[in-house]
Amino acid sequence: MTGRLDGKVALITGVGGGMGVEAARLFCAAGAKVVGCDFFEEGARQTEEAVRAEGGEITVMGGVDLGDAQAAKAWIDQAAEVYGGFDILYNNASTQRFAGIEELSVEDWDYTMRNELNLVFYACKAAWPHLKKRGGGVILNVGSIAGLRGVEFMPQNAHGTAKAGVMSLTRQLVVEGAPHGIRANTISPGLIETPNTRTFLADPPENVKRIVLDRIPVGRVGQPADIVNAAIFLASDDATYINGANLVIDGGGSVLG
What we know:
Elements: E1 9-13, H1 19-29, E2 33-37, H2 41-53, E3 58-61, H3 69-83, E4 88-91, H4 106-134, E5 137-142, H5 157-177, E6 182-189, H6 195-202, H7 206-211, H8 224-235, E7 246-249
Parallel strand pairs: 1-2, 1-4, 2-3, 4-5, 5-6, 6-7
């Protein structure tokens, strides 16, 4: 993997926790210069320090609310100045609220759309002129298997809708970006072990075991590196003919229906 992204500059959102930490680490290990952001100041600082200690070249800005259009544009513009442009935008950041259709409040719906769909659009819109000026680049958006199918073990009305929107947005970016050398792809994870899911997975409810864990053909839950390694490939020059893909990474669980 080392060297696959040599000479590339990558903007990665949400690097202060979860899969974003691994994204920052592995993108740097693959040779990229990374400019990251996170809503939380402390998480941003910790990631920056940890990756630099490993020899990675990274700058992380904290306190960035990507769900605010002006703040998202300000961060993209600021990030572009660090190395005089960028080649990759990896929209990893998201947060959501879960509830059934009767319990899900309008506020929770709006919160999830803001922080899973709107923030991706804002970042892509702000990045577009920079990528055109660069002569092209790569956009990686994170979807979810919830955007492709109903989910039995947890109601995901807002989350699934937002991620389906991310996939649709990505497809349109393919069409509009191709004349400018901009590629766009989606990565749709299944169940991944992160700090947010670790406690849940340590003692999963019976319905999760039956519906999810016992039906993953590879026999294990996904790890952040499973997602990030795919992102590195899609961002690299080895994937220049991959455009508009939605790469499902769930250990094969989705093929069982």
